[in-house]
Write a structure and sequence with these properties.
Blueprint lengths: L1 E4 L2 E3 L2 E10 L1 E3 L3 E10 L2 E2 L2 E4 L2 E4 L2 E2 L3 E4 L2 E4 L2 E2 L3 E4 L2 E5 L2 E2 L3 E3 L7 E6 L3 E2 L3 E3 L4 E5 L4 E2 L3 E2 L1 E5 L1
């Protein structure tokens, strides 16, 4: 199935399949099994089993994603826990740590583009991560279990 939310405020968001959010504020938890596409949305806590695309969003509490992430002009107020081989930030900010947990991918890659910033550490549990830093992006903490590849 699919869920679509437009402008307005909801207490919580739960969905299976394709979930599309635009201009929505979610005051409580968001739990999605499937794919999330969000534009100009404000989340409290985020828990996604599937791929995620965020544009101009704010996640104010903890976020956990089990799948690929594309974040553009998005702000993570707390830490981000992710199980993925492909993570891309464009003009986005994480205030705390980025923790990349075990996956079956041989390599886990994080792309920080266009002034993206990680306010804490980037931690790869599996120990073979690569962080690509481009366009004025920066990491305030350190990279643990991986290496920085300047491009």
């Amino acid at each position: 199935g699919s869920v679509t939310c437009g402008k307005g405020v909801v207490e919580k968001l739960t969905g299976n399949g394709m979930v599309s959010v635009s201009g929505t504020t979610i005051n409580g938890p968001t739990l999605i099994n499937g794919m999330l596409t969000a534009d100009d949305a404000n989340f409290s806590a985020l828990n996604i089993n599937g791929s995620v695309s965020l544009t101009q969003c704010s996640i104010n509490d903890f976020a956990e994603i089990k799948g690929s992430l594309n974040a553009s002009s998005t702000k993570f107020g707390r830490s981000l826990d992710i199980y993925s081989g492909a993570i891309r930030f464009i003009n986005s900010k994480i205030n705390d740590n980025l923790q990349i947990h075990h996956t079956d991918n041989l390599e886990q890659e994080v792309y920080l583009d266009n002034n993206s910033e990680v306010g804490g550490d980037i931690i790869f549990d599996d120990g073979h991560g690569k962080v690509y830093i481009r366009g004025g992006s920066k990491i305030v903490g350190k990279v643990i279990g991986g290496e920085i590849v300047e491009k």
